[in-house]
Amino acid sequence: MKIFNFPSFAKATEGRQFSIFNPRQGIYPAPLFLDKNGSDSKIVAPIKDILQTQLVKSGAGFTLIELLVVIGISAILAGLGLAFTLDFYRSYAFNSERDLVVGLMQKARARSMSNLNQQSYGVCITNSNYILFAGAFNCEPGNSANEVYPANPSISNTNFAVIFQQLRGNPTFYNINGSVSATSTLTLLKYGTAGPATVSVNPEGQIQW
Asked: Could you say which of 3.40.50, 3.30.465, 3.55.40, 3.30.70 is the CATH number of the domain covering 95-208?
């Protein structure tokens, strides 16, 4: 069998059979099989059916199962990514909160030791606010003289207050109601997979975490 790429006709000699591919039908056009008289050939019809079937199969898209597998894998990867992102966020938020508490204690002690404005300074830690105050015990967030920092509502703590002595920096611990306490350790409770963490003040006023 010979193949001619003529767009609309085929020449044949007697006893032979020919096929024409029409280039206007695309890169893989469906074949047209002709006999010597130019009519559709009966002999090569089975071959024509096989080739046409193969051409249809070669142009098929993704199957439903393939699409479901891809969607399933994508969903699993997205879920893992979300879990890692949440863990990272919680760890970052928890560490930031701990660093804020430690920083306020260090600031209060530094001001007391430098005798800034001839006053002692302290910090009051609650679940709603962190308050840096001067002078006597004062955990009122509405006091204009106090420095108030909002606490992360997702991170709880055991409530804690400390005043550092002028010049020396030795600590005195208090309960939130103003009574003297023996507790020298603040605990930030667990937040998701992050924490818990403890911040303690030794008798000399050194802050450890």
From this structure: 3.55.40
CA dist 57 and 53 (Å) reads: 6
Average pLDDT over residues 162-186: 94
Domain spans of the chain, in order of start: 2-58, 95-208
What whole-number distance in Å separates Cα of residue 170 and Cα of residue 121? 11
Longest dimension (CA), the chain: 121
HEC string for the chain? CEEECCCCCCCCCCCCCEEECCHHHCCCCCCEEECCCCCECCCCHHHHHHHHHHHHHHCCCCCHHHHHHHHHHHHHHHHHHHHHHHHHHHHHHHHHHHHHHHHHHHHHHHHHHCCHHHCCEEEEECCCEEEEEECCCCCCCCCCCCEEEECCCCCCECCEEEEECCCCCCEEEECCCCCECCCCEEEECCECCECCEEEEECCCCCEEC
Residue 122: strand pairing partners: 133, 163
Mean pLDDT, residues 66-80 taken together:
91
Range with lowest mean pLDDT among 22-31, 70-79, 109-118, 121-130: 22-31
